[in-house]
């Protein structure tokens, strides 16, 4: 069997001396890691808008129409409607190439934009680092699987399988993070609070009919009677003491008169 350390060493990347020797042979200028072409940058764009509308129904329809033309969709859509105002809380996912177009289309509408917050995060460095680490882990995984096929003892098999399990978990984690970053880069997020304030309208409480008021009076009277009876039941020990006291007092006065 080929030694474990020897196979693992084969999976390691070349040393800096080896890279330097190749650089000397190659007359092309060195490439710095932080020099990334603009077109390959990974930018996550997101933002939020607060919009005051005069007709929230029409405003919502206009946003719906714009989203259809830009291949966007609602990730969440919540409606609240009370006596003071009606409002939509919207989270929009839109292809990043159309992000600025969507904001411009909303701003050109008849509604008033009260608040605007736009952010752009450069995740190029993290993306490149994850990609490099993922390729390295995949290379290690191939080596360990080759080594596993040559293992002859239970100890070596268990040791290699454990290393494979750890590497596979790390690969899945890196792939998940890369997938998330790609999704965030490809589709931007825009949170929109669209609301319309309502005019205050006084609504007096209507009086009940005589029959309803009579029913309520009877019910209240009956509740009062029940409450009084329950009160008497709860104080029955004191009533007994009072009766006994009155009896003893009268008995005492009767004896003294004799």
UniProtKB/TrEMBL annotation:
Coiled coil: 157-184
Native organism taxonomy: Bacteria, Pseudomonadati, Bacteroidota, Sphingobacteriia, Sphingobacteriales
Name the UniProt record assigns to this protein: DUF4349 domain-containing protein
Positions of region (Disordered): 1-33
Transmembrane segments: 225-249
UniProt superkingdom: Bacteria
Species this chain originates from: Pedobacter psychrophilus
Matches recorded under Pfam families: DUF4349
InterPro entries documented for this protein: DUF4349
Keywords for the protein's UniProt record, in alphabetical order: Coiled coil, Membrane, Transmembrane, Transmembrane helix
Domain DUF4349: residue ranges: 42-248
């Amino acid at each position: 069997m080929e030694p474990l350390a020897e196979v693992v060493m084969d999976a390691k990347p070349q040393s800096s001396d080896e890279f330097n020797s190749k650089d000397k042979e190659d007359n092309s200028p060195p490439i710095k890691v932080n020099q990334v072409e603009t077109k390959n940058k990974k930018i996550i764009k997101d933002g939020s808008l607060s919009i005051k509308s005069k007709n929230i129904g029409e405003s919502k329809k206009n946003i719906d129409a714009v989203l259809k033309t830009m291949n966007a969709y609602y990730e969440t859509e919540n409606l609240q409607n009370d006596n003071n105002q009606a409002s939509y809380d919207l989270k929009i996912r839109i292809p990043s190439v159309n992000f600025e177009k969507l904001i411009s289309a909303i701003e050109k509408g008849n509604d008033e934009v009260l608040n605007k917050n736009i952010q752009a995060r450069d995740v190029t460095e993290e993306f490149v680092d994850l990609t490099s680490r993922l390729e390295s882990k995949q290379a290690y995984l191939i080596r360990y699987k080759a080594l596993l096929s040559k293992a002859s003892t239970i100890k070596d098999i268990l040791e290699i399988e454990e290393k494979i399990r750890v590497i596979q978990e790390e690969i899945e984690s890196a792939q998940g993070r890369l997938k998330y970053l790609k999704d965030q880069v490809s589709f931007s997020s825009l949170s929109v609070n669209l609301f319309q304030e309502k005019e205050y309208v006084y609504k007096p409480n209507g009086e009940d009919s005589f029959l309803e008021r009579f029913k309520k009076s009877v019910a209240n009277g009956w509740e009062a009677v029940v409450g009084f009876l329950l009160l008497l039941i709860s104080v029955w020990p004191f009533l007994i003491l009072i009766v006994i006291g009155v009896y003893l007092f009268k008995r005492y006065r009767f004896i003294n008169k004799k």
